[in-house]
């Protein structure tokens, strides 16, 4: 697994310290409220677990799975809900937890869905952001790291369902996906 990584971008320690900062900011901003924190599966599952432990106010958690990528490294532009929420979002303050924002298509679709279901507010926390790749106008309310246009894996992020269990985030060697 390690041999497939061209360069480690952020170590486990660097990620943990950023996640603590993000948790503190969320705790401060949502003080006195009871937000519904939504994990976008699968990529955000580790971030959600670590972030939720660093949120010091009462929250509820739910999970949603959307698909847009298949096994490729570029968004198809088509977003599909694969697993929907168990909880009603009507009148709720929603915080979407996303692993990475690339084109922005997935999130703009999700925000739209939640607003149409009459959420009271919808905000986004994304651990990684590739601002250079946006095709729709969208920004996270909380961002961990801005990264260049490279395909990264680890800390929940996959290539063809592999590498999610790496504790750090790194750039995948191009030969891994160009050979397929
Ligand atoms: P978007 O709709 O913003 O183009 O893409 C969002 C989703 O694509 C992310 O939630 C993530 O699942 C996937 N994605 C985008 N960039 C990367 C990347 O560099 N590495 C991995 N593993 N997934 C990515
Ligand atoms: Mg994602
Ligand atoms: Mg993926």
From TrEMBL:
Leading EC class: transferase
Essential cofactor(s): Mg(2+)
Domain Phosphoribosyltransferase, chain residue ranges per copy: 11-159
Pathway assignment: Purine metabolism; GMP biosynthesis via salvage pathway; GMP from guanine: step 1/1; Purine metabolism; IMP biosynthesis via salvage pathway; IMP from hypoxanthine: step 1/1
NCBIfam families reported in the protein's UniProt record: HGPRTase (TIGR01203)
EC number per UniProt: 2.4.2.8
Family annotation (SUPFAM superfamilies): PRTase-like (SSF53271)
Pfam families membership: Pribosyltran
Gene Ontology biological process: GMP salvage; guanine salvage; hypoxanthine metabolic process; IMP salvage; purine ribonucleoside salvage
UniProt catalytic activity: IMP + diphosphate = hypoxanthine + 5-phospho-alpha-D-ribose 1-diphosphate; GMP + diphosphate = guanine + 5-phospho-alpha-D-ribose 1-diphosphate
Protein name stated in the entry: Hypoxanthine phosphoribosyltransferase
First-listed, main subcellular location of the protein, grouped into a coarse class: cytoplasm
Top-level lineage group: Bacteria
Subcellular location per the Swiss-Prot or TrEMBL entry: Cytoplasm
Family listed: Belongs to the purine/pyrimidine phosphoribosyltransferase family.
Gene3D superfamilies: 3.40.50.2020
Keywords, in A-Z order: Cytoplasm, Glycosyltransferase, Magnesium, Metal-binding, Nucleotide-binding, Purine salvage, Transferase
Organism: Cohnella rhizosphaerae
């Amino acid at each position: 697994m390690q041999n497939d990584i061209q360069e480690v971008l952020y170590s486990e320690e660097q990620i943990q310290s950023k996640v603590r900062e993000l948790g503190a900011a969320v705790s401060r901003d949502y003080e006195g409220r009871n937000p519904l924190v939504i994990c976008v599966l699968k990529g955000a599952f580790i971030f959600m677990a670590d972030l939720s432990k660093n949120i010091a106010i009462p929250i509820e958690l739910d999970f949603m799975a959307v698909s847009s990528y298949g096994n490729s490294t570029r968004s198809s532009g088509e977003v599909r809900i694969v697993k929907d929420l168990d909880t009603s979002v009507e009148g709720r303050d929603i915080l979407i937890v996303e692993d990475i924002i690339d084109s922005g298509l997935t999130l703009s679709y999700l925000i739209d869905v939640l607003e149409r279901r009459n959420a009271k507010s919808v905000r986004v926390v994304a651990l990684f952001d590739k601002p250079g790749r946006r095709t729709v106008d969208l920004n996270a309310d909380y961002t961990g790291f801005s990264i260049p246009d490279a395909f990264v894996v680890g800390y929940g992020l996959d290539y063809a369902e592999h590498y999610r269990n790496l504790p750090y985030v790194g750039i995948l060697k191009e030969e891994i996906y160009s050979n397929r």
